[in-house]
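pasting TetR family transcriptional regulator for the record, 196 residues
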Amino acid sequence: MSKPRQFSDERIFKGVYQALSKKGYANLTLAHIAQEIELSPAALSKRFGSKKGLLLAYSDHVIEMTKQTFAEAQSTSGSSLEALKNVFLQSMKTVGDPVSLANITSLYIEGVSDPDLLQRSCLRLQVIDDGVQQLLQSAIRGQEIKACDTALVSRVLQAAIGGSLMLWLKQSERTPDEWIDDCFEVVFASVRLAEE
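structre below
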């Protein structure tokens, strides 16, 4: 009798992401996720209990990955603003097209009716906001930008990027990188220190 294959959480969570990008939150099933990683839906159910249990575990994983991404950005030498921009640019590297972005985002939008998923979504947004503000404070200390209300600039930057990506859903002739560049250019125009 052969020994059953082991599947790491990371591999399973990659399958969640792939299935979610194809199906969206409302249409996602354990079978779709299992198909992505060549595992049975029963094995996923045994491990996570349910689709919701798996999505909660996936959400926790995304939160930890977000923390790690910002920690790495904060530890890089050089421009804090460039490190911050790279966080947003890297987050878009795996999104191939507007449909995938809409489907991935659906977990956070449609999941608001579930208190547990909403709590994870709010925690993720707090991690992002904290990370953005810390990098903005580093940019102030590094004299890249003037002293400013980092909470306000963080909110405006996130709103600009989030809004621009929603526009990308309908206006996909420009790349997400171009939208993100525009957001950084406009948001930081009034607080960037003049180069000597």
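Residues 53-187 form a domain with the Tetracycline Repressor; domain 2 fold (CATH 1.10.357.10).
The chain has a mean pLDDT of 91.
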